[in-house]
Amino acid sequence: MREIANFESRALEELYDRYSPMIYTLIKKIATDEKTAQKILVEVFVIVWRKIDKFDFTNGNVFGWIISLARNRAADQLRRDRAGSLTKSKYDDEYENYFIIPTFPNEMDSLDHKTATSLKPKMESALSKLTDTQKYVLHLAYYEAYTVDEIADKLNVPVETVRNKVMTALHNLRDFLSRE
């Protein structure tokens, strides 16, 4: 990341080679089609190149930062596609800095690619223990980029019910992960 900050294109190529397969898999789960997924993948690395100054070098969480960046960009595109021409926010640097570029608390543990890959079976096991409703609300929120209000509308339930379902699902997921 420091080499990218010095505009060394070779470093960006190396980052792309290392992370693009995983990022593309995530984007494809969110994006509506292959062409959009490919476009978003390229945009993610363009954003890395242009916004490297937004990366927290003291934390150094490259994996978490780039995965979150990809998820945020894909989710934003999905929301924009769903909105059509209705109330689309202007996509500019200020918008990108606020809604797309991830920020993490300083006390957050760093997660690297190798550790994340090793945790995959544990995460899948923990997810399998959630109820179908809990899985569904998390899916709507994370992969389909619905807000709590939109999920409530979609399911025709009160917003507070959705909040409770999401919070319960996240707490259960955390508890199941800690027991694995």
Tell me about this structure.
The chain has helices spanning 2-5, 9-30, 34-50, 62-83, 93-100, 113-128, 132-142, 148-155, 159-179. It has 180 residues and is mostly helical. The protein has 2 domains: 1-111, RNA polymerase sigma factor, region 2, helix turn helix motif (Rna Polymerase Sigma Factor, Chain: A, Orthogonal Bundle); 112-180, Arc Repressor Mutant, subunit A. Helix 3 (34-50) crosses helix 4 (62-83), helix 6 (113-128) packs across helix 9 and helix 7 (132-142) packs across helix 9.
Brief characterization of the structure:
With 180 residues, the chain is mainly alpha-helical. The protein folds into two domains: 1-111, Rna Polymerase Sigma Factor, Chain: A (Orthogonal Bundle); 112-180, Orthogonal Bundle (Arc Repressor Mutant, subunit A). Helix content is 72%, strand content 0%.
Strands, helices and their partners?
Blueprint: H1 2-5, H2 9-30, H3 34-50, H4 62-83, H5 93-100, H6 113-128, H7 132-142, H8 148-155, H9 159-179
Helix pairs in contact: 2-3, 2-4, 3-4, 6-9, 7-9, 8-9
CATH superfamily of the largest domain: RNA polymerase sigma factor, region 2, helix turn helix motif
Per the CATH scheme, the topology name of the largest domain is Rna Polymerase Sigma Factor, Chain: A
Distance between the termini: 33 Å
Percent helix, as a range, is over 70%
Reported for the largest beta sheet, the result is: none
Helix and strand pattern: HHHHHHHHH
